[in-house]
Write a structure and sequence with these properties.
With 362 residues, the protein is an alpha/beta fold. 28% of the residues lie in helices and 23% in strands. The chain is built from eight helices and 17 strands. An eight-stranded mixed sheet has the order 4-5-3-12-13-14-11-15. Strands 6-2-1-10-17-16 form a six-stranded mixed sheet, with helices on one face. β13 and β14 form a beta hairpin. The longest helix has 25 residues. The chain starts with 6 loop residues before the first strand and ends in a 15-residue tail after the last helix. Bound molecules: flavin-adenine dinucleotide. The site of flavin-adenine dinucleotide (FAD) has 43 residues, from α1, α2, β11, β15 and α8.
Amino acid sequence: MSQNSEITIIGCGAIGLLTAREFVKAGYSVTLIDKSLSGQESSWAGGGILLPLYPWRQPKAISTLVIESNKKYADLSNDLFNATNIDPEWYNCGLLICKNPDKQLATSWCNQHSIPYQEAGSSFFTDLNTQTINPLWLPTIAQARNPRLLKSLKAYLLDAGVTFIENCEVIDVSINNENINTLHTNKGEIKIKQLIICTGAWTGELSKKLLPHSLCSPDISPVKGQMLLFDAQADTLSHMVLDADYYLIPRRDGKILAGSSVEYTEFDKSTSPEAKEKLLHMATELFPTLKDIPLINHWAGLRPGTKQGIPYIDKHPEIKNLSINAGHFRNGLVMGPASARLISDLILDRQPCVDPEPYKLI
Ligand SMILES: Cc1cc2nc3c(=O)[nH]c(=O)nc-3n(C[C@H](O)[C@H](O)[C@H](O)COP(=O)(O)OP(=O)(O)OC[C@H]3O[C@@H](n4cnc5c(N)ncnc54)[C@H](O)[C@@H]3O)c2cc1C
């Protein structure tokens, strides 16, 4: 198996696909490799809220990518829909935050980033059952329907001539003169020119395997999240609701997601009856209408966890033709577009779209 693409990307989650799109737009040939099928892991399992939970409690480096991405999302979604006829369903339905103890922090974050907000009055809580603390309504916060975003991205990239090699696990590399020249996979060898690792939760483990002697290994490990899906009709819930650590997300067709657990369980993607019970209890207590709505799905995904949730977006300091774009933890869908733009700016020697310093490998 021989490839001659200028750019090779390992990992076909949101981060790999968005990164590929940046290079396609810049006129480069791209090959994408995944150990399973494209878009089946964390990026599929996520909720698609285009805001971190309580962003004012997160490091500034996260807000920077979130704000930059959100400038692009509506156009990204429209462009993909027009090109592929698959709608990523960018939907600015708004987000209601029921408990907002750090009111001052929240409003100054919103002011700083020009995010409209208002106090949420009692009319927001007619159908909800919760104890509120300074509830906050963010009317412009959007979501993307991540499984459709992934499908649309893949269709766009295939149409642009990108090569997908699926069910192909990268297990080793050959290095010559500080450059990786060959990937060894379970399907054979792949020659490469520039390599970008976008392997989400597997990035820490994979980096150690590929570069066992490197002094620079990204500290990324899996954090499981479980989620439920209810078969609600359109307009059952008109906006996203965040209550303490849990949230409800209504899709455009009415279906409602309830999430999510946060579990440090290595590479175990199984669902558990305990998490299901907890999520079900939370969802039906918060929004009692759900008691009469069929629960139709329950799944788990592995978030690429980093200590502070800040991703690594950098050229490798030891291997000249290697870069990494991974470790987006709970916010890969919202940080993805800016993160993809930043890694392509660095590789193509363009002016970086944001200051690259906080995302460096060392
Ligand atoms: C329950 C849950 C809820 C979430 N909610 C949100 C949210 O509301 N908003 C938000 O922004 N984010 C959310 N996230 C986080 C978000 O989903 C992740 O940050 C994001 O999907 C990470 O994307 P990725 O492309 O890096 O990883 P992934 O989507 O996991 O993709 C990595 C890919 O690499 C491939 N791979 C790994 N190793 C190899 C190898 N050796 N060879 C070849 N291929 C390999 C895998 O098969 C996989 O396809 C949520 C996540 C979960 C689990």
